[in-house]
Amino acid sequence: MEVAVEIVEGKPVLVFSRRLDDEAAGQFNRELGLWVERLLTKGVADLAIEFSGVSYIASAVLRSLLSMAKRVRARGGTLAILNPSAEIQETFGVIGFREIFESYGGKFRLSLPAVPLPQRTPAETAQLDIIVGNRVFACTDGDTLGTEGSLGPELFSDLPGVAARPVRFQNAGGHWVAHVSPDPGSIVRVDSQVVAPGQEAILKGDHVLQIGEVRVRVHVTLPEGTSREGEPINVQVQSVFSQTAEWIDKTLKE
User: Fold this and answer.
1) Do 150 and 210 share a domain, yes or no?
2) Which residue range is the domain that position 245 belongs to?
3) CA spacing 20 to 30 A to 201: which of 9, 37, 60, 107?
4) Do 198 and 105 share a structural domain?
């Protein structure tokens, strides 16, 4: 099981993927419970979880969904399942789960299609766009992401694991660079690889950037004639793996 937060139609959505089997049921219940409580406490009534990347779902997870839908309804809200995958739709159809879930106050719906990647004319230097839900931010040199960043800080407010300004973007001419602050306060990943404090990732083409539990899309329009193949993450300090492990351990303990 994998879990992250994405902005969908301007609202945070808890996104699950891979197998929600018996082994993952406990973690699923904890993650969903914390998510629901966090949003209900903030006064958010319409809650959503996304299942487009889920390939299997166990009966224990189905019971958690029913229990949570009932709990949310009792507090004046609604829990919706967005975009269930074909495999999950088939499972729901066989056991009649849709009707049962709706009887507990839950809903099923499809979200709007993802915002298409910007089509920009190549310029002398690379151009960077950050896609957060249905909003596209044209990045300029020195822009930052986070709860106090220069790009849509209101979208990251109170989201799990997102600090003030953990990532800064720099235009390097033929590509862009994502710099992680020496003391970011967040775990930062680019294409699932952790970028430790004080390090950087080279951005060429399309990437997934994750700050804490929140994922956004990154799109780079390269100068004409520049190779689109992405370079590996550029590590600027030695012993990167040990330092990254140390940082993750420290952050989780805090």
Assistant:
1) yes
2) 127-253
3) 9
4) no
| CA–CA separation, 76 and 150 (whole Å) | 35
Residues 6+ apart with CB under 8 A from 11: 44, 46, 48, 133
pLDDT tens digits, 137-195 = 999 999 999 999 999 999 998 888 999 999 999 999 999 999 999 999 999 999 999 99
Q: Extract the residue ranges of the chain whose pLDDT is less than 70.
A: 112-113, 226-254
Cα separation, 192 vs 50, whole angstroms:
19
Q: What share of the chain is helix, strand, coil (3-state, %, to 5)?
A: 30, 35, 40
* Residues 6+ away with beta carbon under 8 Å from 250: none
CATH number for position 247? 2.60.200.20
Q: What is the pTM of this model?
A: 0.79
